[in-house]
Amino acid sequence: MDAVFKALCDPSRRKLLDLLYTHNGQTLGELCEHLTMTRQAVSKHLAVLEAANLVIPLWQGREKLHYLNPAPLQEIYDRWLSKYDRPQLDALSQLKQTLEGNPQETNHE
Amino acid sequence: MDAVFKALCDPSRRKLLDLLYTHNGQTLGELCEHLTMTRQAVSKHLAVLEAANLVIPLWQGREKLHYLNPAPLQEIYDRWLSKYDRPQLDALSQLKQTLEGNPQETNHE
DNA sequence: CTATTATGCAACTAAATGGTTGCATGTCAA
DNA sequence: TTGACATGCAACCATTTAGTTGCATAATAG
Description:
homodimer; two-stranded antiparallel ribbon; DNA-binding; WH_DNA-bd_sf (chains A, B)
């Protein structure tokens, strides 16, 4: 899961995922057209995405087609993000209660 | 949003969020007890989390209480992650169709 | 007032990161 | 077969990052 978070923290890599979202199965060359860095730099980013299993490559002759795999994103949500989704966790409401001197479980002693 | 992704990519910072999830409003010193690095290192991590608005500090005398703010996580999901949640985007099924020679919209030409 | 406690600030270091350039390899087309 | 095209590999560089140590400041306790 660490590899997925690492992969997502770079904006260029998130852009690559967005590009594959709108047009799946693109080659390295095609993806390069939408970024301002060299082909090798894009290739490295794709390697990181592949290592996180977010992109699955398929060789077709001399072309390498890149396919988006959203499964790790789903896992990130299910196993980490979803537990923070409870609105009652909202810090501001808790702060308000703290400032009101209203002691409760989640407060510091 | 970039700040939030950056904040999340470090496992120590995710652990801090988890610690605040289980016990909100902890001081720097309390949080340090659960990590193996120096107080200053933890302090830096908390600064990153504050910059991303994931942690909201509240000074109480000489103690700084740290409160979890899950709102940016919700935003990450709503504005970025949620669009990848459609199962039909699954790369493997697309690859299968590609390999079956079944041309479709989402394919490369 | 003095000690101790909780935190902040600044400088430094090692390692990771994001990018480059140059060259090699394999596939397709004429 | 030859040349162009798509990609990979490796070395290198600059910046960021994650951590350290040392010292400063402010609040509480005795």
